[in-house]
Specification:
Domain DUF1996: 90-276
Organism: Pilimelia terevasa
Protein name: DUF1996 domain-containing protein
InterPro entries: DUF1996
Number of strands: 19
Helix content: under 10%
Strand content: 15-25%
Strand order of the largest sheet: 10-12-16-8-2-19
Order of helices and strands: HEEEEHEEEEEEEEEEEEEEHE
Radius of gyration: 18 Å
Pfam family, one: DUF1996
Shape: globular
Length: 324
């Protein structure tokens, strides 16, 4: 799962395409996140989407003879049930987490501080293909109307649409990932740790090739999009690692996996929002991260039933576009 661009070179290898299904969901409706006549346009964390350069590089690269060029898209809703909490079952299992950093979930309906693989596998799901996996990211809030940036108590914005897609590999077939595989993308501490893992990708529904690590000011009627492109090169042994990253890493710029890793389906999650015109928005962040858009991140824990996953892998390796 990969995707993005400047200014961070590690992002230039990530996927820039949006599936037809994703575009269909993300383009619909919306009151518009921003008007050009913003009263205070000088906030450094915001940028007019028209000022963001379009991507010129192509991803994926020209596929090889055995490439898995297919896709598999399915729906897990948009958190209509209001499943949110401050736990992080991937990074800090067993802990409730800081109250000022709230995650939003789709998929598994039971994900919380005390979740285990077994409890999750036995729980319900919002996915239409019986996928019991959990997918989550920090909530998005409206900034205070007084122009301050303490958005900790701002109104949480429920997504207008969430699209999940698995992609194949441009260099060969993919293998099914194991149950319980943990995946992480982005860097919740990007402001203070140098941003080595930063992968924040923000854009607007009508400008998917203009991507930025700042909050985008979109035109009237255009949805704000958060794009999470997960790593897709598995070490073949572990479902987790000390930093929750070493066991599942990104591809190289040419689409190849590093030595001693194997290509698995690349997960892309697109979260779309209809936001009030003229209002700023902020991602929930740790106290010392100042709600920076660069701290955007997401997690996944794979518990997709084996028959469903086998169907998805078959679609990817056969070059078919499938829906779950």
């Amino acid at each position: 799962m990969q995707a993005t661009f400047p200014p961070h070179s590690d992002r230039q290898r990530r996927r820039v395409r949006l599936s037809a299904a994703a575009l269909a969901l993300t383009l619909v409706g919306g009151t518009g996140a921003w008007l050009a006549r913003d009263p205070t346009p000088d906030w450094p964390d915001y940028v007019d989407i028209g000022q963001v350069n379009q991507l010129t590089s192509t991803w994926p690269p020209t596929p090889g003879d055995t490439a898995g060029t297919g896709s598999y898209t399915w729906s897990c809703g948009r958190n209509e049930i209001g499943h949110r909490n401050s736990a992080n079952v991937v990074v800090t299992p067993g802990s409730t987490g800081p109250v000022h950093h709230t995650h939003e979930y789709v998929g598994n309906t039971s994900t919380g501080a005390d979740s285990t693989d077994a409890s999750l596998a036995a729980a319900g799901t919002t996915c239409d293909n019986d996928d019991r996996s959990t997918y989550y990211w920090p909530v998005l809030r409206l900034a205070p109307p007084d122009g301050g940036q303490d958005g900790q108590h701002g109104a949480i914005q429920t997504p207008a649409a969430v699209t999940l897609t698995l992609y194949g590999s441009p260099v060969g077939p993919v293998v099914a990932p194991p149950g319980g595989l943990r995946a992480a993308v982005g860097d919740a501490l990007a402001v203070t740790d140098g941003g080595r893992h930063a992968a924040a990708t923000w854009t607007c529904a009508d400008s998917p090739r203009r991507r930025t690590d700042r909050y985008p000011r979109c035109g009237p009627g255009q949805r704000v999009l958060r794009v999470f492109d997960f790593p897709s090169c598995w070490d073949g042994r572990r479902t987790d690692s000390r930093d929750h990253r070493e066991h599942l890493v990104p591809t190289a710029a040419d689409g190849h996996c590093p030595p001693r890793t194997f290509p698995v389906p690349q997960l892309q999650v697109i979260v779309a929002y209809d936001l009030p015109t003229g209002r700023r928005f902020l991602v929930d962040a740790f106290a010392d991260q100042n709600h920076s858009p660069r701290t955007d991140h997401a997690f996944a824990l794979n518990l997709m039933p084996a028959p469903v996953l086998a169907e998805a892998v078959s679609c990817l390796n056969a070059g078919r576009a499938c829906r779950g």
